[in-house]
Design brief:
Helices cover 29% and strands 23% of the residues. The protein is α/β, with parallel strands linked by helices and 463 residues long. The strands form 4 sheets. Strands 4-5-3-6-7-8-9-10-14-13-12-11 form a 12-stranded mixed beta sheet. The structure holds zinc ion. The site of zinc ion has 7 residues, from loops.
Length: 463
């Protein structure tokens, strides 16, 4: 019965089926994107003060922390006051998960997630149950900069597991035809392209790596790319050359944005620029330089630190994303007064190579499932095509059932193109720069888009 009703439910206006936050949030963002810098600041300060008062009243972790450092939320007069609080890292979240949950919310008002984070360390966290509608409104608000209409259907080529043997299906909740990027091979890329064209899907929502792989396969099969108005791509860094390659193949704009499941930073491009515009309505973002001071000048790089303004279930204040970014110009020609990032860095880009030369992004294996709950750290190691070793640092309560669940989850995602073996290790060594790497790839990853790049560079020089 549920299977019958689900598609009907999602034919209701989006304002109804996406929850009570969707419509008001979208309405706000359509206005607030053109607010003055002062008005955005006041909006943030009001929300921050409410959040900090909530932390003091209802969240044991912050109650204790505020007492230890002598911080009084009632005394907060400016956003700079936030810097009197210490940073919150992923290990602290993991060790104090229970204490970070607000006492005044009931379990049914919360939603539990896990994420791979950016260091390959599985991490669980909570958000309010109604957060999804708000998040969707932010997504729609930035896509609207390209003319996107949320009532339209789109193509999705991301890490979504698909039951169907044809590796694509319609998902009514997303209003999207979803294609498996785990099964994107020379043989079925023609079918993907045909369906995308026949269904008249104006937008492709993907990972940068997946759309690049798609473009590469279309070229190798001499197939015409579907006529997209734009490619919407996130969850991975867009490296130099990749944007040019995708835009040249599809003759469409690549629109990229940056965010994570923890909902502490969201920043997207606009209609006139590929700088990332940080949503002031979403969170308070600091770019912290290596010496601990705030980046304030264009070109300065630092770690992204985010304080969420809407997650009252598990407030994340000054949360370390482990991702690096470079500050952009002071203002954009689009007229929005959002802070700009020139680029975001630090997301793993290593990929796993499948038996059929298919590239699998670890972003697609991003552990949004509870099967990694009893695992401390993981790392993929590959030295042979179609085979990967998953190194696991177990938690004490890890059992054989966890191994079975992990293998089942990976097989569901990577299917028959990669054989995974588990290998338990006491420790996973860090890289020379002190970071854990999710993928150690011994095989060469095909370089993509270099030809187009060279041509474009020479065109630019002539001009
Ligand atoms: Zn702009």
């Amino acid at each position: 019965m549920k299977a019958v009703l689900r598609p009907l439910y999602y034919r209701l206006p989006a304002t109804l089926c996406y929850g009570k936050n969707f419509a008001p949030t979208l309405q706000l963002l359509r206005q607030s994107q053109y607010w003055s810098a002062e008005r955005l600041y006041d909006y943030q300060l009001t929300k921050l003060r409410a959040m900090l008062r909530h932390c003091a009243a209802n969240v044991p972790y912050y109650r204790r922390l505020f007492r230890q450092v002598g911080f009084d939320p009632q005394q907060v007069r400016s956003l700079a006051d936030l810097q009197r609080l210490p940073l919150l890292d992923k290990a602290t979240v993991r060790d104090h998960l229970k204490d970070l949950i607000a006492e005044n919310l009931r379990p049914h008002q919360m939603h539990y997630f896990t994420t791979g984070g950016t260091m390959g360390v599985p991490l669980g966290f909570y958000n309010t149950r109604d957060a999804g509608g708000r998040e969707r409104a932010f997504m729609v608000a930035q896509w609207e900069r390209l003319g996107f209409d949320y009532r339209e259907r789109r193509a999705m080529l991301r890490g979504t597991p698909i039951k169907s043997s044809r590796h694509w299906q319609y998902d009514p909740s997303e209003r999207a035809f979803v294609f498996s990027n785990f099964h994107m091979t020379a043989t079925n890329v023609a079918e993907y392209a045909r369906v995308m064209q026949e269904k008249h899907l104006p937008y492709l929502h993907s990972y940068p790596s997946a759309v690049i792989d798609f473009a590469r396969l279309l070229q190798s099969q001499k197939l015409a790319p579907p006529p997209f108005k734009a490619i919407l791509a996130s969850s991975e860094t867009v490296y130099p050359g990749q944007r040019e390659f995708v835009e040249a193949v599809f003759k469409a704009r690549l629109f990229s944005w940056y965010g994570h499941s923890e909902d502490v930073v969201l920043a997207g491009e606009c209609e006139v620029s590929s700088d990332y515009h940080i949503f002031a309505e979403y969170s308070i973002v600091e770019v912290l330089k290596e010496d601990g001071s705030l980046a304030s000048v264009e070109g300065e790089a630092g770690e992204l630190i985010g304080s969420a303004l809407d997650n009252f279930a598990m407030p994340l204040i000054r949360y370390r994303t482990d991702d690096w970014a470079v500050l952009g110009r002071a203002r954009c020609a689009c007229g929005r007064n959002y802070q700009l990032l020139k680029e975001t860095r630090g997301r793993r880009q290593d990929m796993i190579i499948g038996r059929l030369d298919n590239l699998i992004s670890p972003t697609a294996l991003n552990f949004h499932t509870d099967v990694f709950d009893r695992v401390l750290q993981v790392q993929f190691y590959q030295r042979e095509k179609g085979k990967v070793e998953l190194r696991i640092k177990r938690r004490d309560d890890y059992t054989a059932q966890d191994s079975a669940n992990i293998l089942a989850a990976l097989n569901e995602k990577m299917g028959d193109t990669v054989a995974t073996t588990l290998h338990f290790v006491p420790d996973i060594p860090l890289s020379p720069s002190g970071k854990a790497r999710l993928v150690i790839q011994e095989l060469p990853i095909p370089q993509i888009g270099t030809t187009v790049n060279r041509e474009q560079r020479s065109v630019k020089r002539e001009a």
